[in-house]
Every structure is written in C-alpha cells, then in structure tokens.
Design a protein that fits this description.
The chain contains 13 helices and 9 strands. The protein is an alpha/beta fold. The chain has a single domain, classed as 3-Layer(aba) Sandwich (Rossmann fold), CATH 3.40.50. The protein has a 5-stranded parallel beta sheet, with helices on both faces. Strands 5-6 form a two-stranded antiparallel ribbon. α5 crosses α12.
Length: 272
C-alpha cells in the first residue's frame, strides 16, 4: 500500500483534524463545542455549506484549515458517512474520526421536534413547510413519515462506519461513542477522548470547559423519550423494524432495541 511520505511531517507540523462523524440529534453540537473550547483546539467545518447538501469532506477546505491552524487540533462537526472518498482523505491527511450515534427512536423524535421548531433543510430527506403541512391530509402520523423518509439515511450512516474493517480497513480505527455513554459519565468520557487523540489539556481545562455554558441543540435531553412515541405508534415502530430486519447479521444494539424486547414503562426514561 502506498504511504504518503509527507503524512508524518504534516501531522507534526500542522496538528490533526478530529472529525466528529455523527447522527443528527446525537449531542454532536454539544460535544464539538466542548472539544473546540480546549486551549489547543479550534472548530472548523470541512464542507462549503450545509442544508440539503451531503456533508462530504472537501479536500480544498482540509488543506486550507491545516495551513490556517498550524499545530492545533481542528474539530469538525459533520454528518458524514464513510465511503471511498472519506477513506482516501483519511489516508492522505492527519484525520481521525469520532463516530457518535444515539438510539434511533430518540433521534427520530428529536428530528421531528427540529422540523417542527427550527428547520426542514438537511440531506437525509427532502421536506419543505408545504410538504410537511400536507401530511395533515393523510393517514400517516408525522413520526411515521419522519421514520420512513429519514431512518434509511441513519442506518446507511451506521452501517458505513461499523463495517469499516470490511470496507476500508486501512483507515485509522474510528472511536465509537454513543449519546448515553457520553452523558452518563461526561467528565470521564470527555477525558478519554482528550487522551485518545493526544489533545494537550489538563484536568482543570476539562472541568472548566464542561462547566461553561455552551450552545447546543439538545432540546429535551431525555434518553428513552423516543420509545414512548413508537410504543404509541405501531405503524412507525413497524416501519423502523422492517428496515433493521434487512440486515439480520448486523449488531444494531448501540442504536436500536425492538419494542417488544423492553419494558415500556416510564421507568426506562432518564434525563441526561
């Protein structure tokens, strides 16, 4: 395999890029803002714009941010799936990945909240205000429609990363993290990330950053809230389950547990 002779020099001189490749509505805004608040880190997008454009990493921007932030850790917040282009860039530039996921039902319910209150412009499905309003004239609930149109993208994202060893074994091993892991023991998990990626920050820096007020898109911040919606909407639950069952030999336990395999009481709902 060809090894770029300049890669080691680039790492030493220009630091590294840490891409938080994430589910939408997974706590990713919170995590990237906290990481970028550390003394040697800076937040930079690696795509020219968002909205309905797929967030494929842009090589020109990668080159620019490495030159601009020499010696620093560049934090990038991207809803990017792993593919040949992403793997190629990871081999030619000092790029490492944190893959952040969340329970699918929680994500989809949070996404519905986002569509109701903020925006309907994103790459994983096509909606406008008119199209969303048109649902009122159908038999579909909104969470059912959101599931049908968005869940395939989430599962595509998940598969692309969990199967990285089969598809792109040459890339640096991604660091996998779930929403519940992050928030159930925030300081410990955050410290592990800092250590894993060689970010120069003391414990005082970490505690200060975690205690600071930070903008995030955590709306309800409740793990298990989505399950209540899907328990009440059997059509939406069935639609999600059908997609999952297309991949019988894939472990989806990080992001999905069938409705009939878990106690559905409110005791399973915990605030984080």
């Amino acid at each position: 395999m060809f090894r770029n002779p300049f890669r080691t020099r680039i790492k030493e001189k220009q630091g590294q890029i840490i891409v938080v490749a994430c589910f939408p509505k997974s706590g990713s805004t919170f995590l990237t803002r906290k990481l970028s608040a550390l003394p040697t880190c800076v937040l930079e997008p690696l795509v020219p714009f968002g909205e309905r454009r797929e967030q494929e990493l842009d090589e020109g921007i990668i080159r620019e941010v490495l030159r601009k932030h020499e010696g620093r850790h560049i934090i990038a917040h991207q809803h990017v799936r792993l593919n040949a282009n992403t793997a190629d860039l990871a081999m030619r530039y000092p790029i490492r990945f944190v893959v952040l996921v969340r329970d699918l039902m929680d994500c989809l319910v949070s996404l519905e909240d986002h569509m109701n209150n903020e925006s309907k412009l994103f790459p994983h499905s096509f909606w406008s205000n008119r199209l969303y309003d048109d649902l009122s004239g159908t038999s579909l609930s909104r969470i059912h429609a959101v599931t049908i149109t968005n869940a395939p993208w989430f599962i595509n994202f998940y598969l692309s990363w969990v199967l990285w060893k089969e598809e792109y074994p040459e890339i640096p091993a991604p660091f996998f993290l779930s929403y519940s892991q992050l928030f159930q023991n925030l300081e410990s998990t955050f410290s592990s990330l800092v250590t894993k990626f060689g970010i120069q920050a003391g414990q005082k820096d970490i505690i200060r950053v975690l205690e600071e007020e930070t903008f995030s898109r955590l709306n309800k911040g409740i793990s298990g809230r989505g399950r209540e919606y899907f328990v009440k909407d059997s059509a939406a639950a069935s639609a999600l389950d059908q997609i999952i069952r297309c991949y019988p030999n894939v472990d989806f336990s990080q992001i999905y547990e069938p409705i009939d395999q878990k106690n559905n009481s409110r005791n399973n709902i915990t605030e984080v």
